[in-house]
């Protein structure tokens, strides 16, 4: 027979309502909410990316083709690849505060969420014209 907490965890679906007060949830559910929160931030990043990329292609690539340096698009793509590696590795280390514990996934996903939201703002800041 399954205990009530395990049964609740099996039926738990993370969303804005179920995760609204995740601090009062059992650890497995808090971990699920942290992973869900990261998925939301990552979806926002993925929606922001093509808009920023289009802006960089239009405003920061073509007019400088004469100087033989990488285009704005090439540099942005390289920066994004490097940033993803940095985020994932940094958050992996950050999660070691609870290495091997049940809260390790919570720290990992919370870190990735924070860094992803910060990155969204950094990318949006690139689209400011005539600074």
UniProtKB/TrEMBL annotation:
**One Pfam family of this chain:** LprI
Q: What is this protein called?
A: DUF1311 domain-containing protein
Span of domain Lysozyme inhibitor LprI-like N-terminal: 26-123
On the tree of life, the source organism's domain of life is: Bacteria
The species is Parasphingopyxis marina
